[in-house]
Amino acid sequence: MTRLYRFALATVLATLALIAIGSLARLHLAGSGCGNDWPRCNGSWLPALGWEPPVEYAHRVVAVAVIVCAATTALTAFKTPGVSPKGRLFAAAGLGAILVQSLVGGFAARWGAPAGIAILHLASAMLFLGFALLTLAAVAAARGTPRWLADLGRTAGTSVDRPFAIVAASGAAIARILLIFDASTSATGALACATWPLCAGGADGADAPAVIHLGKLEYNKK
Q1: For the segment 105-155, what is each residue's pLDDT rounded down to a tens digit?
Q2: Rounded CA gap, 109 and 107, in Å?
């Protein structure tokens, strides 16, 4: 069980590193450092010297490491006695999510990251991170340590605060929707609303950019 916990923890940490490198590549325009080439970088298996190619290639290398960690965690979860069915389900679902996310990332590199692909790439990445965290909590619960994480992974009893659970779940759902709006705004360049709370001085949201950006502003107001 300790080995499985370490694999699950490594998956989460590697995923956080992948998100950090991906954000760095996005912010510093290194996301196209390898051109429309995948899995190679500008026709080579080694990136050229400079800034953009190494950052983009590092993102791909860490992505492979995350896939390996997720696959190892899922396989170990099914082989380790005492793991709950939900823990195994989370591990398998996480592996499926990261495989889909990697495939979408390959399409994004090949096709120049069109808006729809970029949004799907982010959505699947956040879904995988959720499954990875759930897997870690479930494994900690089966292992019994660390205590604070094991308590999160245990099945809630009858004393659970249902109103709080509903509010928390609703907040998580709204945050995810807001994340998708943010990705849509960034990927499509939908900066149509120059004023607030009105959109572009009173635009009625008839075009797609205004709908996307106005929807993001409305969620931010909440």
Answers
A1: 777 666 665 666 777 777 888 889 989 999 998 888 888 878 777 776 665
A2: 5
Angstrom distance (rounded) from CA 114 to CA 133: 29
Cα 8 to chain centroid distance, Å, stands at 16
Which helix (H) or strand (E) element contains residue 6? helix 2-27
The DSSP 8-state label assigned to residue 49 in this structure reads S
Helices in 44-114 by DSSP H: which ranges? 52-79, 85-111
CA distances 16 to 66, 162, 164, 203, 221, Å, are 10, 30, 28, 39, 28
CA distance 217 to 124: 23
Burial class for 195, CB neighbours closer than 10 Å (0-12, 13-18, 19+): exposed
Q: Would you give the DSSP letter of residue 46? A: S
Q: Which two tokens stand for residue 221?
A: 């107001």
Q: Tell me which residue has tokens 């709006």.
A: 181
Considering only residues 1 and 212, tell me which one the structure prediction assigns the higher pLDDT.
1
Concatenating the DSSP letter of every residue in 162-214 gives HHHHHHHHHHHHHHHHHHHHHHHHHHHT-----SSSSSTTT----SHHHHHHH
Do residues 108 and 121 make contact, with C-beta atoms less than 8 angstroms apart? yes
Q: What is the pTM of this model?
A: 0.69
Q: What does the pLDDT look like over 53-95, one tens digit per residue? A: 788 888 888 989 999 999 999 999 999 988 889 899 999 999 9
* Torsion angle in degrees (nearest 10) through CA of 175, 150, 95, 42: 70
Q: Which two tokens stand for residue 131?
A: 């499954």
Residue 34 and residue 42 in contact, taking contact as beta carbons nearer than 8 Å? yes
